[in-house]
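Work Package 4 report. The design task specified in the project plan requires that, given a folded chain encoded as structure tokens, an amino acid be chosen for each position. We show below one input record used in the internal validation round.
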């Protein structure tokens, strides 16, 4: 029998790192934390060597990035507002609201480390 899938974080972990969530946000966060866990497992083969706290923190960070993008900003990479002599400009870091791992997070999960290996191209015979 296969092990039961267990996400690296719960919506409670997310709330402790971000803010209190509404009921619908909790449901969404639960699914996104499962997705973030699977992305970590699929992307970083040495994820099991990371501490539980690191896995929780990274899964939460991924979901916060995703949930921070509201529907009104989805797909917007840059926005500018002008009122009289005042103007504001915004550039969004995750305009599509993707779940992703940053380079620093991959590094924390053991990714990006060079490994040496040897490959015999001669076929083994002399």
């Amino acid at each position: 029998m296969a092990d039961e899938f267990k996400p690296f974080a719960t919506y409670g972990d997310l709330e402790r790192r971000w803010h209190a969530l509404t009921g619908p946000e909790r449901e969404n966060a639960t699914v996104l934390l499962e997705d973030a866990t699977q992305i970590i497992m699929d992307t970083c083969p040495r994820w099991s060597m990371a501490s539980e706290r690191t896995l929780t923190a990274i899964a939460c960070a991924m979901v916060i990035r995703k949930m921070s993008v509201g529907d009104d900003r989805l797909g917007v990479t840059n926005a500018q507002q002008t009122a009289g002599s005042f103007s504001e400009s915004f550039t969004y870091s995750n305009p599509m609201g993707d779940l992703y791992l940053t380079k620093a997070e991959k590094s924390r999960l053991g990714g990006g480390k060079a490994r040496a290996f040897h490959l015999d191209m001669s076929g083994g015979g002399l």
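The two ends are 47 Å apart (CA to CA). Validation will be extended to a larger panel in the next phase.
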